[in-house]
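Subject: Interface between my chains keeps coming out wrong

I've been trying for a while to get a sensible model of this assembly. When I model each chain on its own everything looks fine, but I need the whole thing in one frame so I can look at the contacts. Pasting all components below, labels as-is. Any help appreciated, I'm running out of ideas.
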Amino acid sequence: MTSMHPRPAIAATGLRKAYGDHVVLDGIDLHVPAGTVFSLLGANGAGKTTTVKILSTLIRPDAGDARVAGHDLTRDPDKVRAAIGVTGQFSAVDNLLTGAENLRLMADLHHLGRADRRRRVAGLLDQFDLTEAAGKPVSTYSGGMRRRLDLAMTLVGDPRVIFLDEPTTGLDPRSRRTMWQIVRDLVADGVTIFLTTQYLTEADELADRIALLDHGRVVAEGTAEELKRRIPGGHIRLRFADQRRLDAATRVLGQTPAVLGQTPAALGQASHSLGQVARDHDPLALRVPSDGSLQALKTLIGRLDDHAVEVDELSVHTPDLDDVFLALTGDPTDDKVTTR
Ligand code: ATP
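Reply #2:
Try treating it as a single job with all components included. I did that and got this:
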């Protein structure tokens, strides 16, 4: 991850798109600083690809303004196209050609001279670990190699903003990590990445900021940590050796929401579900709502020590992006977004 840059690579306001009476985007605003990774999350059909298509000039919005890489999307679409790269959900490589031929074709489309072309193709093959397979037809490549080639082809034009629409879908964990490293290297070079993904760990790993799309609107935006703090669910789990100790702990902690280390008010939106010690599916365990901070942990342990209650096991649970996604977005099978 990188530090914020003042100049936005993408700035969109009030983007709307409907197909018939099906409103897909109902006025979304996006602000992506240059040299950062921005991830757009949402259930199937939430409008992620539609957003990518609009911002990459493939389709026009019904309303709204956007500037991408400093150019107005509707007034200067050619300049936007020249500055961006798009890697879609389905690989754009030609299976009948070799990896090197695919890259050369792309270099020709970008009107590179012979020497530039040779240098660029060799450089990308090396960067994406495809030199050995360069002369083989893409039909013989693995899914991971194909994705790497696809992204390498996007980079031939040296884009400053890259849209990656679900770039690691179907890849095994090792290939996914290779792609993540490639993304990090690009960002280190100042490239801006607009990422859509179904893998929340991917957004957690890569994104400087994340926006959650639901029913045509951005329902939450922030860093992964900010989003996780927005929802309840963090707790300390305590397990006891026997019922007597569990009962003693329930008495001690049951009356003391202060064990959280914070007042409910300080916890903002999560306050409604905090305060009460809850039972766990394990009959000898308790869950104490907590932000998981060291201070909260110390207070809790101190409290139990004061009353000589022995704890057998202790673990801290913080919400992950899956919890955020499930809490803040609607039913993923509900494909009927807003209807005008
Ligand atoms: P996924 O995660 O499944 O790829 P997504 O968030 O990328 O989903 P989009 O592909 O943007 O979703 O689609 C959003 C909605 O718009 C869906 O309900 C889809 O059926 C609808 N849609 C997209 N393109 C068209 C089109 N050309 N005509 C009619 N409806 C469309």
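Reply #3:
Confirming on my end. Residues 10-228+326-337 form a domain with the Rossmann fold fold (CATH 3.40.50.300).
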